[in-house]
Fold this sequence. Notes:
Rossmann fold; about 15% strand; alpha/beta; single chain; 7-stranded parallel sheet
Amino acid sequence: xxxxxxxxxxxxxxxxxxxxxxxxxxxxxxxxxxxxxxxxxxxxxxxxxxxxxxxxxxxxxxxxxxxxxxxxxxxxxxxxxxxxxxxxxxxxxxxxxxxxxxxxxxxxxxxxxxxxxxxxxxxxxxxxxxxxxxxxxxxxxxxxxxxxxxxxxxxxxxxxxxxxxxxxxxxxxxxxxxxxxxxxxxxxxxxxxxxxxxxxxxxxxxxxxxxxxxxxxxxxxxxxxxxxxxxxxxxxxxxxxxxxxxxxxxx
Length: 251
């Protein structure tokens, strides 16, 4: 398979960051792209630049999501949208936990449930799930976020069992630190918060960019039809996952 085998795509979180870069890449290849996000204004801005068809809907609203995608013959599904939070499970609020489960996990399952049957019927399709190294390695970060991304990792493997024998491929993109607005949003989303996040997490580091992620997906989609690139880890050269912590108690 190559891009000439696909006609349509749906990208979640298409209003900013990786989703916007992925949308731009897909439209450049001539696909009709539907972009899903809650922020209609930002979605319209990307649509005006790329020609994407905006679908302003809250991914946490399953009924609205189902209505938005009903009847769409999607060949390429990119589950990109994700939310995280500062802190960990000890100081988590119910709202933050629910948001991560709703967007990072529940929406992924429902979109696969809604769109994969059409791919099976057409014997053509590609599901791209954006997970995270947080789903494969344990390090300090919000436990609910790690848990949802670990679930996306398992979903990506399990989907291939669900569609075995069909020309449907499933690729999990597993990024390390990417230059997006996510840290700034976690700090409040204000211009000052975005600036603080830039100084703390990006300035002086050689992080991967949203274009790097889009290029990686492009490579996976354009692979020969008999090749399924199942799991691709993409990290900055200077970032390594893992590490061992050991605390000495003196009391």
